[in-house]
Amino acid sequence: MIRSGGWIKIGGVLMALLGLFLIVVVGDLFQFSPGDDIGISLSEKGDEMAVNAGFGLFLIGIFALFLYSGSALPEEYTRAFLKTQGESVGRLVRSLNLEGNGIYLPPRGRLTSDRVFVPLDKRLMEVPDLSDDMVLHTGSMGPSLGVSLHPLGAGLVDEVENGCGTPFGSEPISGATEALERLSKGTGLFREITVRDRKDHLEVHIRHSVLGGVCEDIWKDHPDLHRKVGCPACSSVLCATTRIAKVPLRVMDVRREGGKVIYKMRKGG
User: What digits encode the pLDDT tens for the residues 196-217?
Assistant: First the structure.
């Protein structure tokens, strides 16, 4: 007989594979060209629902495996699995020719859940008006081509909020470091999370614990992924921080220093 955790792991694998299938199949239907003024609307092809479902299934499946595989599998197997997921997301972002820095958006306005918007190019641009069902932003109102993704760490943040009963969005930015202890101490995934308010931007210092090696491996193999989306653990910290800030946060710089990952996030996108 398979235990309940075993069924969850099997379901996680199946959902992740189905999600990747939908993303890859639908993603091959379009390509971005930096010189194009007109984007292709997925809704016109009837494929937007498939892309949304693909990302949703992929992320749910991955987090199910994070939560139920990490303690049961040997560390080297867990690291290999998480590294594979990071590589899959890295290839997806690269295949869409996305070069801009990620912009994390809190659940505000037309968004009822977190998003990370990755622009097509590196030019600074206004944060587009996104909605929950929007995946591809075609830039019809200006040079804002890009893709809106569910952050890899959003599910973990949701679980922490549900467990403690206090949403991060109710916390002031001045108390961000203390509020994020619920994420670090509550999950055991981080040794330290510190947020420093620099008026026009935030500095987010992340010192990993059990997933430190995974973050390092993804950093080495996909150097640009942390400035666009982030590894699953870093993404969860950025999601929680953006909820506390209550405004979009644009990745201006990210570096590794003294065993920490340090993000510089511009307020307002």
Answer: 999 899 999 999 998 888 899 8
From CA 183, how far away is CA 187, in angstroms rounded?
Answer: 6
| Sheet order of strands, 103-105 included | 136-137, 146-149, 115-119, 103-105, 249-257, 260-267, 201-208, 190-197
Write out the H or E segment, with its range, that includes residue 126.
none
Q: Which residues pair with 97 in a beta bridge?
A: none
Helix (H, G, I), strand (E, B) or coil at 131: coil
- How many CB atoms are closer than 10 A to CB 28? 9
Residues 227/78, Cβ–Cβ less than 8 Å:
no
What is the DSSP track for 245-256?
HTS-EEEEEEEE
Burial zone of 60 (CB within 10 Å; 0-12 exposed, 13-18 middle, 19+ buried): middle
Q: Residue 229: its pLDDT value, please?
A: 92
Number of Cβ within 10 Å of residue 94's Cβ equals: 14
| CA dihedral sign of residues 262, 154, 191, 213 | negative
pLDDT band of 101, cuts 50, 70, 90: very high
Q: What is the pTM of this model?
A: 0.72
Asked if pLDDT for residue 27 goes beyond 60, the answer is no
Kindly report the length of the chain: 269
Contacts of 2 (CB under 8 A, 6+ apart): 10
